[in-house]
Every structure is written in structure tokens, then in C-alpha cells.
Amino acid sequence: MGKGLLLCVICILVTQSKASGMADQRSLVSYLSDHDNTIIPKKESSPVNVTVSLTLIDILKVDKETGQVDIVAWVSNTWKSNFQWDPARFGNVSNLAIPSKLLWVPDIYAYNGISKMEPLSPDLLVIAHTGDVVYVPSIRISFLCDLKRQDISTNATCELKLGSWVYSGYKMDLINPRFDLSSYFSGSKYEVLGVSAKKETSYYQCCPEPYISLKFVLSFKEQSSRGILGINW
């Protein structure tokens, strides 16, 4: 077989393989569409466990008069869905990136937010054939912090409280919170002095169920212009 003919055959096989792979993924998405994405994937006797972590990208705005603080963060959610599949039935496709609207996702909101959380990234998640889901949207969050008695030029501390808007701890538990600074913007106007993350459980007079929230604490200060430029005088 000549080299030219061999290359032609290889190209055809690669094209067919790609087409087959796309067909397998389309079949899997069609199969997923029959799954009810409105039902929370909890067990009868235990809640769905959702691991939530916050990766801070930047502090965009701090208004001492109004108490408004704006940040950009990756809000990582991982949990186990009821939807699973046998990769052998779908061309050995073991994981799939899909729009989040096709699957149940945790209703995580900022309790002290002052506007709707603004998504900045494509609204996609990745689900494995085992049902394990990873959803990491990049979000701009505006929330309230009492700054009137704090000096943002030296040290200010704010708390962001995240939790489910409708589910009690009997249906959805938030576990293993982390506050990560590994991707923080080095040229930010604000220097981060410290962070922490803590799980809290609350009870209310109206209801016997526990309600779970996560408190992310952020300490920061406003950098001088020379600090932002990386100049040491």
C-alpha cells in the first residue's frame, strides 16, 4: 500500500472515529434527557452531600459607605447524581460536559447578597458515568459587610454566607468547605491577609429541621499604589 493511500485510510478511520464518538455523546445526552432533573438526588434516609469550596479570583469593589463588597470567585460544587450509565453502551464515553440545566444542581445562594449572583463562565458541568458531578461556575458576588468601624487601609474583615435557599439539612448537607487563594489575582487592588471557611447549623422556631450554611471569612487591606505596581521603596 502506498504512503498516500495509507494516509487517506488513516484519515478516514480518524474521521469515522470522531463521528462515532460524537454520535455516542448525542445518544448519551438523549438518554439523559429522559432523566428527571428536578428531583434532588437524596437517599431515603440521608441527604445528598454537596462539597462546596470557594476559589477567590479578585476583590473588585469595596464601598465603605454602603458596605457593598464585590468579588469574583469560582464556586466549586461536587455531589453524586442519581444518573449513571454503562460506558460500554455509549462508545466507552465515561464522562460528559453538559449544560447545567440538564441536571439537578444545588441551589447555593449568598444569604447576605445584595443582587443576583452573576455567572461569568459557560454554564456547564461535568458528570462521570458513576454519577459524580463537578460544577465550578465563575461568579461575581455582591454582598454586604459592615465596614464603618473598619480601616480598609490596614485590615478589614468580611463574611460571605452561602447556603441552600429551600433545602433543609435533612435533604441537602453542605460539607468540607474550603476557601482557596491559589488563583488570586496578583495585581489586585486589595491584598488578602487571611481566609477561613466554616460550616454552621441553624434551627428556627418555625421548623424542626436543621438548616446548613457555610461562612467564608475574608480579611484584606487596600494596597498602596506602589504595592500594586510591585515597587518596594
Automatic annotation (TrEMBL):
<dbReference type="Pfam" id="PF02931">
    <property type="entry name" value="Neur_chan_LBD"/>
</dbReference>
<keyword id="KW-0732">Signal</keyword>
<dbReference type="GO" id="GO:0016020">
    <property type="term" value="C:membrane"/>
</dbReference>
<dbReference type="GO" id="GO:0004888">
    <property type="term" value="F:transmembrane signaling receptor activity"/>
</dbReference>
<feature type="domain" description="Neurotransmitter-gated ion-channel ligand-binding">
    <location>
        <begin position="27"/>
        <end position="219"/>
    </location>
</feature>
<feature type="signal peptide">
    <location>
        <begin position="1"/>
        <end position="19"/>
    </location>
</feature>
<dbReference type="InterPro" id="IPR006202">
    <property type="entry name" value="Neur_chan_lig-bd"/>
</dbReference>
<dbReference type="InterPro" id="IPR006201">
    <property type="entry name" value="Neur_channel"/>
</dbReference>
<dbReference type="InterPro" id="IPR036734">
    <property type="entry name" value="Neur_chan_lig-bd_sf"/>
</dbReference>
<dbReference type="GO" id="GO:0005230">
    <property type="term" value="F:extracellular ligand-gated monoatomic ion channel activity"/>
</dbReference>
<protein>
    <submittedName>
        <fullName>Soluble acetylcholine binding protein</fullName>
    </submittedName>
</protein>
